[in-house]
UniProtKB/TrEMBL annotation:
Keywords: Cell cycle, Cell division, Chromosome partition, Cytoplasm, DNA integration, DNA recombination, DNA-binding. Belongs to the 'phage' integrase family. XerC subfamily. It comes from Nocardiopsis algeriensis. The gene is xerC. It is found in: Cytoplasm. Residues 104-285 form the Tyr recombinase domain. CDD domains: INT_XerDC_C (cd00798). One of its GO terms (molecular function) is tyrosine-based site-specific recombinase activity. The keyword Cell cycle applies. This is Tyrosine recombinase XerC.
């Protein structure tokens, strides 16, 4: 087994990284190992100067901040693995600093805009019912589109009005679902899913036209099609951003929204507070004696 094969098994088996992350990390590390090989070096020679030289070469080749940050993350995981396996005497990963990223503000629908778009009626065909269920569930739960597509029938607790979600790193969370989303889901389950169900459906909550589990691409197309019909350009992640922002605007605390979104820490959630400035300003004017 090559060192990259072992690392891939470590990433997916022990760390629970997604196939997408594993592919990205391996591509980065092949680039690193090729860079080292050209200089007569191997995995046992990975150190801070060697990695910095590779990153500098990547930057000169046009790699952006996000790519460089991902490459640093890949190398950190790789050196941790090499140290554990005895290939490296010490782990240089903690001494590698990722470049600061300029985080763009998320696209957020206005609350009235979201309400108007969601109230747009899809056709009552199986695909139309599924599209409505998809957009309602994405907005109601704030889940990632891949998390939505992975839902099974048993993940929906109708009596408690919740959905069990398996998020990044295999972490499970339970999120509430509003009644409009449940009604859209009921319509799909009674009038749409039975029409598409087949031998390959298993327990998948959402199905494609061939009866298999709905894929991420199909769910994205459902969102685009529904919102185009409503005269709005929106993607699945826009619904996640909007759900988080509207919760904060409605008075939810940051910690609750963090758990709702499945963020590992509050830093990722704090980006949504930018849209709550108007609410903060209104509260200040009402409450501060010198406002």
């Amino acid at each position: 087994m090559s060192v990259l094969d072992g690392f891939a098994a470590y990433l997916s088996g022990e760390l629970g990284r997604s196939p997408h992350t594993v592919r990205g990390y391996l591509a980065d590390l092949r680039s690193l190992l090729s860079h080292l090989e050209e200089r007569g070096l191997g995995p046992e020679d990975v150190d801070v100067p060697a990695v910095r030289g590779w990153l500098s070469h990547s930057r000169d080749a046009g790699a952006g901040r996000a790519t460089l940050a991902r490459r640093v993350a890949a190398v950190r995981a790789f050196t941790r693995y090499l140290h554990r396996e005895g290939v490296l005497a010490a782990d240089p990963g903690p001494r590698l600093a990722a470049p600061a990223q300029r985080r763009s503000l998320p696209t957020v629908l206005g609350e009235e805009q979201a309400a108007a778009a969601l109230s747009h009626r899809s056709e009552d065909s199986p695909v139309g019912l599924r599209r409505r269920a998809v957009v309602e569930l994405l907005y109601a739960t704030g889940v990632r589109v891949a998390e939505l597509c992975a839902l099974d029938l048993s993940d929906v607790d109708r009596s408690r009005e919740t959905v069990r979600v398996l998020g990044k790193g295999g972490k499970e969370r339970t999120v509430p679902v509003g009644r409009p989303a449940l009604e859209a889901l009921d319509a799909w389950l009674s009038g749409g899913r039975p029409e598409l169900a087949g031998p390959s459906s298993a327990d998948a909550l959402l199905l494609g036209v061939r009866g298999g589990r709905l894929g991420v691409r199909g769910a994205r197309e459902d969102v685009h099609a529904h919102f185009r019909a409503a005269g709005i350009d929106a993607a699945p992640h826009d619904l996640r951003h909007s759900a988080a922002t509207h919760l904060l605007n409605g008075g939810a605390d940051l910690r609750s929204v963090q758990e709702f979104l499945g963020h590992a820490g509050p830093r990722s959630t704090q980006i949504y507070t930018h849209v709550s400035v108007d609410r903060l300003r209104d509260s200040y004017r009402r409450a501060h004696p010198r406002a």
